[in-house]
UniProtKB/TrEMBL annotation:
GO CC annotations on file: outer membrane
PROSITE patterns per UniProt: PROKAR_LIPOPROTEIN
Native species: Acidithiobacillus sulfuriphilus
Source species, domain of life: Bacteria
Pfam families from the UniProt entry: Slp
Keyword vocabulary terms for this entry: Signal
Signal peptide per UniProt: 1-20
Stored InterPro entries: OMP_Slp (IPR004658)
Name of protein: Slp family lipoprotein
Length: 176
């Protein structure tokens, strides 16, 4: 009898597996951080970097993003709360126009691309060496929806825990 249900169970598992969402930045990439790429030795390597946006700067034929790098989860989403990990900053440039209103500061973003060099820019008075990334994939993570507060309300109509029909032994006397 159970063998007859095996194809049904297999079909349900396959159907549920098809519902899983795969982001365009998922996959296995070398564990190179922007801090490691500041020396220029990682040029030409394909990497997946992400973090929180600092600035979005559209130019004539591309848009460049300045990002505070964060460690990434397995699916590629930045791990918020790990800002002290010191993975560094980087600049990722992608062809086309990306609206700075949508790609605003503090949004989570992930890139897949090739390390192309290092560019020194000022952070305050400090000359910071930004690794450059030529991004082939740009993924802006959706904002997390706030979860409403959960509350449990027990309504019993004033009849106690047993409802209108009474408790155990009601109508037959108690078994003393």
């Amino acid at each position: 009898m159970i063998r007859h249900h095996l194809p049904v169970y297999a079909a349900v598992l396959i159907a549920l597996g098809g519902c899983a969402t795969v982001t365009p930045v998922s996959g296995n990439y070398p564990p190179i951080t922007p801090r490691q790429a500041q020396g220029g030795a990682e040029n030409g390597k394909l990497v997946r970097w992400g973090g929180t946006l600092i600035q979005t700067a559209p130019e004539s034929n591309e848009t460049c993003f300045t990002v505070m790098s964060l460690p990434l989860r397995q699916d590629g989403r930045p791990r918020l709360g790990e800002e002290k990990s010191e993975l560094g900053r980087f600049i990722a440039c992608a062809p086309g126009f990306y609206d700075p209103v949508l790609y605003s500061a503090s949004r989570e973003i992930t890139f897949v691309g090739i390390v192309t060099g290092v560019k020194t820019e000022k952070v305050g008075a400090y000359d910071y060496p930004y690794p450059l990334l030529s991004a082939s994939t740009v993924y802006l993570w959706p904002l997390a929806k706030p979860q409403p507060a959960q509350s449990t309300v027990f309504v019993n109509g004033g009849w106690g825990p047993w409802g209108w029909w009474g408790g155990p032994g009601w109508g037959w006397g108690y078994p003393y």
